[in-house]
Amino acid sequence: MSVGLDRAQEIAARVGKFVRETVVHYEKDPRLGRHGPSEELVAELRSKARAAGVLTPHILADGQHLSQRETAVVLIASGLSPLGPVAVNTASPDEGNMFLLGAIASPGMKQRFLSPLVDGSSRSAFFMTEPAEDGGAGSDPSMMRTTCRLDGNHWVVNGRKAFITGAAGAKVGIIMAKSDDGACMFLVDLPDPAIRIERVLDTIDSSMPGGHSIVAIDNLRVPADQMLGMKGEGFKYAQIRLSPARLSHCMRWLGGCVRAHEIATAYACKRHAFGKPLIDHEGVGFMLADNLIDLRQAESMIDWCAGVLDTGSLGTVESSMTKVAVSEALMRIADRCVQVMGGTGVSGDTIVEQMFREIRAFRIYDGPSEVHRWSLAKKIKRDFAQANPA
Fold this sequence. Notes:
The protein is of the alpha+beta class. It folds into three domains: 3-91, Orthogonal Bundle (Butyryl-Coa Dehydrogenase, subunit A, domain 1), CATH 1.10.540.10; 124-231, Beta Barrel (Butyryl-CoA Dehydrogenase, subunit A, domain 2); 235-387, Up-down Bundle (Butyryl-CoA Dehydrogenase, subunit A, domain 3), CATH 1.20.140. The strands form four sheets. Strands 4-5-9-8 form a four-stranded antiparallel β-sheet, with no helix packed on it. The chain contains eleven helices and eleven strands.
């Protein structure tokens, strides 16, 4: 094991201990709702994480970001509870936004917008996806309808966004809009009267603070010096964020499935039926055996993709492959855990039921499997044509 991974294992051990010994006890807290934990609960959890020395563990005291392979070890540990990533500040969309700002933002922007995210005092939102009824951008970002135009020393932004995670309660926003020269990104302080939450959607998942909102942007004026990066480079910056963000989702929810498997295993070993423990019935024991196989394969895929990203590659192909493989493996694991536990598995008595819901949503978030497969198929065709010119 490299020195870096030794360091990551030590951090992950502390994070895992904190999640298991502290965060788990909040999983039935009444401040948890359909749209995630309340702001009060988020602040309380982060205060405890700060005191335990595990807040924002993937970013070191000197501002250095752990490598992707190191980050994987830490984020898997943070995901052992649905509340874990929120508590230790490794949750989406903040973790991905911190990564993007660390890579692209100017020193002044980092001080103003990144620092409060790293210290856990602020949450953020990434405004990219748009409503289907508007004909806007979803899996196809080229369909973006939100516009921006330069007016003196300000950009004026208009449009609507959809499924904006954490918009309710966020203090930092990254907004994507299309200019005559291409896509642009802007950093904004939230709340802003020109950015209006039309409604917070009721979705199948419930772990992310603020839920997922439909947002209207009406003549938002953004100072020109708050453009993130260069004009027209927004889609390139989006890939810098999205490839590692897909992988981070895999990391966190792998941790959740590790815990769900632990709970299902304990149930199967203690629960008896027809004269013996459930695990001694092949129908149950084999499901848990298949879980172990899928857990190991998911971990291997994450480590492989993280290694590619650590070379400096955008890793779009690798992250697509990993997102499909891992999300579908984790869905199988969560489904088996529910099945092993029967009626208890579909109740709220354990986190198994929630993990099933969260993983089902993950198969869609950051691109459904079908879109990633379509992208990979295009690459296969392109590679064949290059290898076999007419």
